[in-house]
Design brief:
With 125 residues, the protein is an alpha+beta fold. It has helices at 3-21, 27-40, 86-99, and strands at residues 45-50, 53-55, 58-60, 65-70, 74-79, 103-108, 118-122.
Length: 125
């Protein structure tokens, strides 16, 4: 499966999670449910994966954690906030650059319409 195939499955899993619980939960709750749904569909999911930064060829732990990494190809950044802001978009792009991956999905579960709160972000390597 490539990134597009995986992102299609992720999108469906986001809808499943949102339809079960709606808005209002903590990000950690959505993360655990979404991880469960994705794993039940046969995908490999890593949660709270450390994302180091490199400076002068030295690996440094700067405290960055990926909410989800799916099949080692797609980053999922989960939010449960009043509104997505520009810094949330920048966060996903930065994670993509640091990881060298191409595709990230930013999702805000605290939304009236979840379909408008799933945003694909692409790292133009």
């Amino acid at each position: 499966m490539d990134e597009n195939d995986i992102s299609y499955i992720i999108r469906g899993a986001i809808f499943t999670t949102y339809n079960a619980f709606g808005p209002g939960l903590l990000e950690s709750a959505y993360e655990n449910v979404l991880s469960y749904v994705l794993r039940s569909q046969g995908l490999e999911v890593k949660q709270q994966l450390q994302l180091p930064i490199y400076f002068n060829d030295v690996e440094l732990d700067a405290g960055y954690r990926l909410d989800l990494l799916v099949n080692d190809l797609v980053i999922v950044e989960i939010k449960s906030v009043e509104a997505i802001t520009p810094v949330h978009h920048k966060q996903v792009i930065t994670y993509l650059k640091l990881s060298g991956l191409k595709l990230g999905i930013l999702v805000n579960f605290n939304a009236v319409n979840i379909s408008q709160s799933i945003i694909r972000k692409v790292n133009h390597l």
